[in-house]
Specification:
With about 280 residues, the chain is of the alpha+beta class. The protein contains 4 helices and 18 strands. The chain has an 18-stranded mixed beta sheet that branches. The N and C termini lie close together (about 5 Å). About 45% of the residues are buried.
Amino acid sequence: MLVRFTKMHGLGNDFVVLDLVTQRIKLNPSIVRKLGDRNFGVGFDQLLIVEPPTTPDVDFRYRIYNSDGSEVENCGNGARCFAKFVRDKRLTGKDEIAVETANGRAVLKIREDRQVEVDMGAPRLNPADVPFEADTAAATYPIEVDGETYEISAVSMGNPHGVLVVDDVDTAPVEVLGPQLEPHARFPQKANIGFMQIVSRSEIRLRVYERGAGETKACGTGACAAVVAGIQRGLLDSTVKAQLTGGELDISWAGGDAPVIMTGPATTVFEGQIFL
């Protein structure tokens, strides 16, 4: 079948976006992996799917697949690209777009400066909701890898995250520790692993080893989880600039059940067609 697609990125976190409102495609993990292959397909960190809504209170259904074919619950950088895509394709004329995700309802807002603001919902900090194996909720948990013990925060932003504080992200053992912590037994659904350097109370640097994708240039939910973890630990104020490899995001959280608000850019790279 001939498939029309759009290549996009959010701070270098790259996506292929498929419009399943105006075209019909039968997706399966094999097709997702073929499309995601950077040598024989198009290549992406995540595949974003635009579908008609299944409930009357949203405008679209938003689905996300990793390049390994697995479906995931949430992607913040992808959400910003999703908002730009449906506006650019004239699937909606709204500046405020409600979408249905595997994690529930989300609201995407396109601002006058073309930045996209995403209401990411309230973080989940109860271990069972992450999910993370622990008896009681805490700001940090000791976790053991190869006889070494690390302090990690466990946060769900609709998908599971583990966050470590490091002295310097440039020298942090992302390539070694990321693959060891992602499938750790205490994360029964695996996890995205964030390595956060505190620059000041209003700024962090961050690298994220993403579940099912490896290290990416930016992770929106990872930035949200890192800021929440930093606030929980008393290290950060309520509004923080997150510096990722691909650029920066503005993250704010008032605490408790308040939603995390993420603001950043979305960029279209090219349009294409491929036989699958």
